[in-house]
Write a structure and sequence with these properties.
13 helices
Length: 323
């Protein structure tokens, strides 16, 4: 029977591989409306800004490729890499490029915290009434963790890059083990190094199952992204040709590049919550297997009367209630 995923006991359970994937989509099936509202209010504006910056940078890169490279100093038509060097040189000298990187990191931080902040607010004690979770409540969680999460992305990136630098394999190991970093930190409120240690401890002996879960969920994500990329590429070529027939072949209209890139960025971020949620269920599964937190929690709740539902209505486990 599907769970409502409105109390802590719904999450703190041992689950096998298939059950973790099922729980991910069951959670989305129950909470897609309030979670979608949270992402719309907190994440969509940043996705829009990031999409605009990315589109402007791409448009300038195309402009350099089509018009600027032949006039760049030292350009040699016989050098196959001359155009690429001209593009990279123009990009790295553009302040928008560095602003785009910072915006991307802020966007990633808010996005991860919005999903996990919402999930943490679902960890209600048994017997409490499941009231709707508002964007304001999630924003309070995001604000509390935003600065640390922003710098944690950089710290994790450095650790993983160093792992790849030393014989490559440590990089793969760290990338998988530290995939639980943000759910661990949001739930347990640990500092950076304690969170890293906690991730390594939880995934010890369970690295392959964590890798398999990431692989399957990422494969599903990339299938969707590939389909979106194909549609995006076709629209990018077809729209200027249809609406601007006087445009020279190979020339790309900036306004359509910006519009389509913004649309693609916003749609793309909507397909990432499943992999974050799958990692969250892996975290709860590993904690339960090693520490039995959920079982201890259920034992402590024995004998307590369940809380009444809003308006005196009793909801079945598969119903959304007031969401």
């Amino acid at each position: 029977m599907p769970l409502a995923y409105t109390h802590e006991s719904d999450f703190r359970q041992e689950r096998n591989f298939g059950q973790k994937i099922s729980a991910t989509f069951e959670f989305l099936g129950v909470h897609w409306r309030p979670l979608g509202r949270v992402l719309l209010y907190l994440v969509a504006p940043l996705a829009l800004l990031q999409g605009i910056l990315t589109a402007v940078i791409q448009s300038r890169m195309f402009g350099v490729l089509l018009h600027g490279a032949p006039t760049a100093p030292g350009y040699n038509p016989s050098d196959p890499l001359a155009a690429q060097r001209a593009i990279f040189g123009s990009t790295f000298q553009n302040p928008l490029y560095y602003l785009s990187i910072v915006t991307l990191m802020v966007f990633a931080s808010v996005f991860v915290l919005s999903v996990y902040g919402y999930l943490v607010l679902c960890l209600r004690p048994a017997g409490t009434v499941p009231t709707p979770i508002t964007p304001g409540e999630v924003w309070a969680v995001v604000k509390r963790h935003l600065l640390v999460t922003f710098f944690s992305f950089w710290g994790l990136g450095i650790m993983i890059v160093l792992g790849f630098f030393f014989f490559v394999l440590p990089g793969y190991y760290l990338a998988v083990a530290l995939s639980l970093f943000f759910i661990v930190r949001v739930v347990e409120h640990t500092n950076f190094f304690d969170t890293v240690g906690r991730c390594l401890s939880l995934t010890k002996g369970k690295w392959w199952s964590t890798f398999g879960l990431i692989f399957i969920m990422t494969l599903l994500i990339y299938v969707l992204m590939f389909a979106l990329s194909m549609i995006f590429g076709l629209l990018r070529v077809a729209i200027p040709s249809a609406f601007l027939p006087t445009v020279e072949p190979g020339q790309i209209s900036t306004i359509f590049v910006v519009a389509l890139t913004v649309f693609f960025t916003i749609v793309t971020f909507l397909i990432y919550p499943p992999i974050l949620l799958a990692l969250a269920f892996q975290y709860f599964n590993l904690v339960e297997r090693s520490e039995g937190v959920g079982l201890s929690y259920l034992v402590s709740q024995l004998g307590q009367a369940p809380g009444a539902s809003p308006g005196g209505t009793t909801y079945r486990p598969h119903e959304e209630g007031e969401y």
